[in-house]
Amino acid sequence: MRKSLTPEHFNTVALRLKAGDKTAGKELFEYWSPLLFRFFMLRIAHKGKAEDLVQDVFLKLISRIDTFDTSVGNFTAWFWQVAKNTLKDYYREKKEGTFSDVFPDGIDIADDRPVLETSLRVQEVLRVLSRFSEEEQETFSLRCVSGLSYKEIAAITARSEGALRVEVHRLTQKLKKLLHE
Predict the structure, then answer these.
(1) Does residue 166 fall inside a structural domain?
(2) Do 82 and 114 sit in the same domain of this protein?
(3) Contact of 79 with 32, CB cutoff 8 Å
């Protein structure tokens, strides 16, 4: 299980990175990259592209760390804003998808039925999630895909932990209902 760290911890690590401490960058990457990968996978359902977007976010983080200011906000919120903007940039540049985007590893339908069934189920979940509002998709993916704590999500979204708990419960119920229709 991933250890949940405080926004203050990440502010300190970000300030170390800003001061030139390369181990701080490694620490941020090791903690945030799995969460970010899951966030992107839910949105675009393509492993290679999700990995590229994670790399893009960290390249932006390194190049823009000088703009981070703790008096304006915390690092966690700043980081997720960079991630969300990277996703928006991806969608702006995105071209039509191909069949290989859905099955990037070239699944042989005759020999790999369990993998195909799983891929089809994932595609169904993604289709249903696309009916959620942008805010609902963000909340759902931060909690249920990236596994952030309610405290971390509250820092990112400036919403109360209680409101987030209610919303995640409501979204989970909504997803279950739509999947059974």
Answers:
(1) yes
(2) no
(3) yes
The tally of domains found in the chain comes to 2
pLDDT of 96 strictly over 60: no
For 4-36, write each residue's pLDDT tens digit.
677 788 999 999 999 999 999 999 999 999 989
113/175 same-domain check: yes
CA separation (Å) from 174 to 50, 132, 138, 142, 160? 26, 9, 15, 17, 21
Could you tell me if 69 and 118 lie in one domain?
A: no
Instruction: Tally Cβ neighbours within 10 Å of residue 143.
Output: 20
Q: What is the pLDDT of residues 40-69, one digit of tens each?
A: 888 887 889 999 999 999 999 999 999 999
Q: Where residue 150 sits, what CATH number does that domain have?
A: 1.10.10.10
Is the same domain home to 178 and 119? yes
4: which residues sit within 8 A by CB, 6+ positions away? 149, 151, 152
**pTM for the complete prediction?**
0.64
Residues 147 and 70 in one domain: no
Nearest alpha-carbon partner for 73 in 158, 133, 4, 141:
158
Tens-place pLDDT, residues 64-88: 999 999 888 889 889 998 998 898 8
d(CA 15, CA 83): 19
* Full domain range(s) for residue 138: 108-181
